[in-house]
Amino acid sequence: MRRTVYEIIFARFQQMRIIDESGEMQADYMKFVSSGLMPLNVDKLTSDTIALAHNGKQNGDVMADPDMEVRIYPELKMAEALTFRNDYMGIYQEVYPEPGKYYPKLKKELNYFLNNWLKTMIDIQGYRLTVEERE
């Protein structure tokens, strides 16, 4: 049976050791690095939501390039993109802008992007965990 993009994203988080087999984030903060590329910062926002971000600096300000919030569904072994932000381009997008409302096309686009971003970091760029902080 073919896996959904949400199941693949969940599996990629496990492969990177961001979440464990049960879907729990391994630490409240993690930093991944790859030679010559911006570090990836991973923060636990709530019990089921994490943020992933590459951050640069412009005129002394920290800039997201990109920053995404992702909800983890441990019982379903799935994860989905909630937001996308790129400060250099002035973009902020929310899949669920208010209760009971969502943007199906944006949901599909952001999850496609997230899946490819994770795949690239794993398969091509070789990101590896360097910092793991527990609360």
From TrEMBL:
Name of the protein: DUF6908 domain-containing protein
Record InterPro entries: DUF6908
UniProt domain DUF6908: residue ranges: 16-127
